[in-house]
Write a structure and sequence with these properties.
The protein is of the alpha/beta class. The protein is built from 18 helices and 21 strands. Helix 16 runs antiparallel to helix 18 (about 575-605).
Length: about 600
Amino acid sequence: MARAPLLQLTDISLTFGGDPIFADLSLVVHEGDRVALVGRNGSGKSTLMKVMAGLVEPDTGNRILPPGMSVGYMEQDPDLSGFSTLGEYATSGLDAGEAWRVEAAAEGLKLRLDADPSEASGGERRRAALAKLLAEAPDLMLLDEPTNHLDIEAIGWLETQLKETRAGFILISHDRAFLNALTRATLWVDRGQVRRNEQGFAHFEDWRDKLWDEEDQYRHKLNRKIKAEARWAVEGISARRKRNQGRVRALGDLRAERAGMIRRQGTAAMALEEGTKSGKRVIEARGISKTFNGEVIFQPFDLRVLRGDRIAFVGPNGVGKTTLLNVLTGRLTPNTGDVTHGTNLEMAVFDQTRAALDPNATLWDSLTLDPSMAVSGASDQVMVRGQPRHVVGYLKDFLFDERQVRAPVRSLSGGEKARLLLARLMAKESNLLVLDEPTNDLDVETLDLMQDLLGDYPGTVLLVSHDRDFIDRVATTTVAMEGDGRATVYAGGWSDYRAQRAERASDPAMPAPKRPETGSAPAAQDKPAAKAPPALSYTERHRLEKLPALIERLEAEIGKLEELLADPDLFTREPVKFRKASEALSERQEKLSASEQEWLALEERAGS
């Protein structure tokens, strides 16, 4: 049965004083559609959603809303003027008998309805807008980053509500797990075009890569055709000038077509580099606890962090994840217990509040005036992992253009601010990364790159995140803080933690999980037969997929170093270079041996 259209856009064109954002755009949203709206940061996703909502008038084209159909849009920055509480705003426009819907949404979203709008945070204002939209229950919901500022529990509640709704909805989100669970179709905004795929976000990357491959093949064929036609024009046109002017014009058309093809934006040229190798023990916390104003944040707690660990801290907003992180890194003093740091620590911190960025400073000043990045006597240079770089060139690595470098930080989008923070963080050599909500506002391609960088990073990572997929792909250990003052350590990422937690809930007699010590042997079992090795966790399966590429890279680096050291005159000519190359060779040989042993162990378990 054909589904009724909820919304139709026909021949939409829109320009904001520069290149067209959209040209000749047409699309239809049908009843019951569950659509992921995806694209690079700055591609126009939010603008398209505002056109759908009727908040932005296009230059040309029509927005058609059938009679009786309603569209609701979750405002990013709602106007709360004239309302005494967030609850008053959220219930405005509803009948008195419908106010319970706002209360139900507020409970699930952890929203204080009695909060004063003038004192509410940006996250609370957005949650009020989301609660209002859910209570209004329009035929089509337009949700622009609804999971930002929600903790994992609230994201789970919202996911359940959207699964159960009969309304259609369009989602913009960076949360892969959220999009995978909810969407059945995908709209992709790419260089002014909007393409639709009748599959959910789980199939987006395969579809995108197929289209890009087809585009590359067409571009290659077009270049070959232009080259052949140009050769004909040079060699034979003088003898056939009158008869072949049409072919000459066709050559001009081919060149115009190639010039009109918009190149894809590359990924940010991010890189992480370890400084001095830290000691094997990075952080040792014994019996640490913390209270604020008589409220217990976490009870006495032990944690050992070893070099190379990737530890994720999860739990509801306000439970104390950032506080625990600050205690572990020495920025806060525990009420009881002690924290010991290992040797040679070089820490780099990504702050979720963006406090390191001055909103009134320019992007240029945000880098050049940072004491850790400043180059003495050069106002246009920044120090990037020990090497001077021109500030504009370095910002281009993070997808900023020259028009932005003198703009104030306050003019940036959330994703652009995150990329600027990453530019500052990745300019420094480090062996301990502290990442507090690094995934907010980043697009899929940048998230993919960050996951790969963290996978190859030889140092240690402490991570706070509500992005379940990101935790699964990165973390080797998860510390769960669930609001009762306890911090419990689980092996693996988010999916492993949930599985272990469910197993404990079904068997209360089970002891609390203990994280295996690195290199420790399993305890002997007083049983006649050994147990089969446990199945690989999600994190271990992901690691097994990554190890062959890591081994290949290490082998290539070892080959280059051995070639360098084969020079018999290197020691006498450049003794410092010889020493560093020898140390690097020894280090990579150790890593290669460890990686090969890890791959063999995981492969054996996978085969079992």
